[in-house]
Amino acid sequence: MSIFKRLFKVGQSHAHTIVDKMEDPIKITEQGIRDLKKDLHEAMKSLAEVKGIAIRTRKEAENKKKLAADYERKAMLLLQKTQQGEMDQADAERLATEALSKKETQAGEAVRLSQEAERHEKMAATLQANVNKTKSTITTFDNDLVTLKARAKTAASTKKINQQIAKVDSSGTISMLEKMKAKVDEEESLAIAYGDMANADKSVDDEINAALSDSKSISASAGLLELKQKMGLE
User: Fold this and answer.
1) Residue with more model confidence, 51 or 217
2) In a 10 Å sphere around its CB, with 0-12 CB exposed, 13-18 middle and 19+ buried, how is residue 115 labelled?
């Protein structure tokens, strides 16, 4: 199954349905990453098992080669004993022949096991490539998810602000401000008018009071002068 099939786990028609329903893409991506991580775990487990089999098979092949070499060495020793007169030639050749037969058997097993080890090693290499690819994909999706979350948050905030702005009646607001301005102008004009009226009223009274104050001041001065003349001070 491809990565995208594992990620979305739906057919193409279902994918269109999801888009139409505006399903949360973050949740889909998170689920896809979880599935990939699960697949990665299984792949790594299989990789470890295959590598283990390859190593074990390779060791068995090497042991078979050593056994084959050992049987060949034994056959040579048997023939040497015949040359040295330590053993009957017929018995020595018979046993040497058996040893060589076992050598061929072990050598054949060594070849078979080596070939089997190569197959397991190739399989392990393929699994390793898949594991590396899955790791890289998960890293990419993790990074994309961080970016997607940031973009989604920004988009949600922008959408909310735009919705609030869209609800504001610009023309109504301008009209309200104009009315407020006219009202303030009217109040300011009335305040000035009332101030002028108050000043006008006060000026008449001030003139009257000033005139009276001047008369009293003149009368008081004349009385003081007359008193000084009587006392001979003037």
Assistant:
1) 51
2) exposed
Per-residue pLDDT of 55-74, as tens digits, reads 999 999 999 999 999 999 99
Average pLDDT, the chain: 81
Angstrom distance (rounded) from CA 210 to CA 34: 99
Q: In sequence order, what are the residues at sequence separation of 6 or more whose Cβ sits closer than 8 angstroms to the Cβ of residue 218?
A: none
Measured in whole angstroms, the distance separating CA 231 from the mean position of its chain's CA atoms is 112
DSSP state of 205: H
CATH class of 3-168: mainly alpha
Residue 205 has pLDDT above 80, yes or no: no
CB 50 within 8 A of CB 120: yes
- Whether 3 and 35 have beta carbons less than 8 Å apart is answered as no
Question: Which ranges constitute the DSSP H helices of 84-169?
Answer: 89-167
Mean pLDDT of 178-206: 71
Q: Which residues contact 28 (CB under 8 A, 6 or more apart)?
A: 7, 8, 18
Residue 54: which of 107, 111, 125, 133 has the closest Cα? 125
Query: Which residue, 142, 138, 131, 139, is CA-closest to 37?
Result: 138
